[in-house]
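Hi W., the adenosine-5'-triphosphate complex you wanted:
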Amino acid sequence: MEARGLVKRYGQVTAINGADFELRPGEILAVIGDNGAGKSSMIKALSGAVVPDEGQIFLDGQLVSFRSPIDARRQGIETVYQDLAVAPAMTIAENLFLGREILKAGPIAKLLRIVDKKKMHEEAVRHMQGLQFAIKSMSQPVETLSGGQRQGVAVARSAAFARHVVIMDEPTAALGVREGNMVLDLIRKVRDGGLPVILISHNMPHVFEIADRIHVHRMGQRAALLNPKQISMADTVSVMTGALKPDQLSAEMLAH
Ligand SMILES: Nc1ncnc2c1ncn2[C@@H]1O[C@H](COP(=O)(O)OP(=O)(O)OP(=O)(O)O)[C@@H](O)[C@H]1O
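Structure:
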């Protein structure tokens, strides 16, 4: 996924100020930036939640434009939001297929929208096993799971339906250490399964643990693309706050 020169203004405020973006196949790209840097606005433009005033978005080299999140979803982009976006009273299997239920075969079943619970259950088991997600039963209501497991269900759902990109907005923010690590593992599995991941996070240790490249956002733009294997966390934070300019960094610290 690529974007060139994205702009979004809210009255006097320019939330996205000519931002470029690039996500490569098979990578986890972390997006970091101070509060108000415009990360969410850019991510919303990439996921159809905001229509940019200017700029272009490309998927596999093709120009695309999203009028809504549903539009972006149809084109293979799934987003996991930080606020544990699952339906607590429904089972894991039902949550995985929420809004995309598999209907039973035949015209009457289709007309009456009779869902094929057995098939959904089987598919859910297959998919969760593929992600090595340890759950006793897919018929368990999501409210009986821990916070980390719930977020795991949201991640698994996005991975099941995304064809191009999975976007995760602070997926570990509400979680404890062990649960956060579990979600990080799951994100790695999503990448290793072939889907590139955009991870918006304020959690530097998580970013450094998992990201292949780091997009630093500052004042509505991409300030730098960093190589987490070559730059320290302290220098990364300095780039984020503007204390360190990208041209003061060595070539290896920059990602290409
Ligand atoms: N719907 C809106 N209406 C008006 N101003 C907005 C709107 N959304 C964002 N902004 C403004 O745009 C700027 C960028 O906000 P944005 O939420 O994109 O930043 P952020 O980097 O995601 O911040 P945070 O890390 O705090 O979530 C801010 O000044 C914000 O007040």
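The pocket of adenosine-5'-triphosphate is lined by residues 10, 13, 15, 33, 35-41 (CB under 6 Å).

W.
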